[in-house]
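Below is how a single chain appears once it has passed through the pipeline. First comes the sequence as given, then the structure the pipeline wrote out for it. We keep one example in the README because the format questions we get most often are answered faster by looking than by reading.
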Amino acid sequence: MSMIDYPLIPSGEKPIWDGNCFHLDKRKVRVLKYSSNLIGWDDDLTAFHEVEAGNGQHPIDIASRNRAIEELQYHGFPSDGSILEIGCSSGYLLQDIRKAFPKSEIVGADVVLKPLERLGKSLLNIPLLQFDILQCPLKESQFDAVVALNVLEHIEDDLTALKKIALLLKPGGILILEVPYGPGLYDYYDIYLKHFRRYSKRNLLTKIIESGLQIDKTDFLGFIPYLPFFVAKKINRIRFGVKGNKSFKFEKMVRKEIKKTASSRVLELAMSTENILRGKVTFPFGIRLTAVLRKTN
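Resulting structure:
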C-alpha cells in the first residue's frame, strides 16, 4: 500500500496508485497532471539534452547520479523509505534509485509532460507526476528524501522552491541538491539551457538557511576538469556576452559542446579519478556545487 497521499487532480478526481498505474474515476493513467511552468524548461530541451548527452552516459552526469546515491546511503536514507526526485524526466536517476533501494517507495516529478509520458511507458511501477514545484500539490511531510539535481537554476524564484521542497520532507528527511557553480561563468550555454543563474557557495548557503534547512554537507563535482571549463566559459563571455536567447546559433554551439564532452575519454578519466579522491581530498571548487540538507523539525 502506498505511503504517499496523492491529492485530487484539477478535474476533481482522486487518484489511487495500485503499484502500476493511477486509478481515477473512470480511467487509468501513468502520469498525474497537476500544473506546468515552461519558463525555465521545456519538452524540446529534455529531448535535446538526452540525445546530445549520450542518453544519460555523459561522464559528469554519471558521476552526479552516483554521488546522489552514495549520499543517500551515507546520510541515512532508510532502505524502505519514501523518495521524490524533482526533475526526473530522463528517468536515469530513478532507475539507479530503484536498483540501490529496491524496497523504497519512489516517486518521479517534472514540470514537463511529454518526457514523463514517454518514461511512463518504459519505467514501470514508479508513479510519475507533472507539477511546478512553486505550485506543489503534494501534502507536507511525506518523504524521507528528495533529490533535485540541476533543477534550482531553472526556477526564477529559487528560494520559494527550496521552502516548498523543505515542506515535503519528514522531520529528519534529507535533500540531495546540485546546482551549477560560478556566477561569473554564466554564458550562452546557460542562456540556451534556460538557466536563471549559476551559484556561488555563499549565495546558495544563504538561501538554504533562509529555507529553514540544515546543512549537513557541501561539496563540489568536476574539480579536476574545472580549469579548462573555467577558461572556456570566460572566453565565451568575452566573445558572446551574457545576453541572448535560444537562437539557432546558440543551439548549434551548445549541441557541439555537449556532444564533445559526452564522448570525452579525458573527462571520463578525470571524473573517475575524482571519485577515487573524494573523501580523501576536499575540493575547493568545481563545475557543480552539491549539498546534503536536512529538515530538523
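Residues 30-294 form a domain with the Rossmann fold fold (CATH 3.40.50.150).

See the next section for the split statistics.
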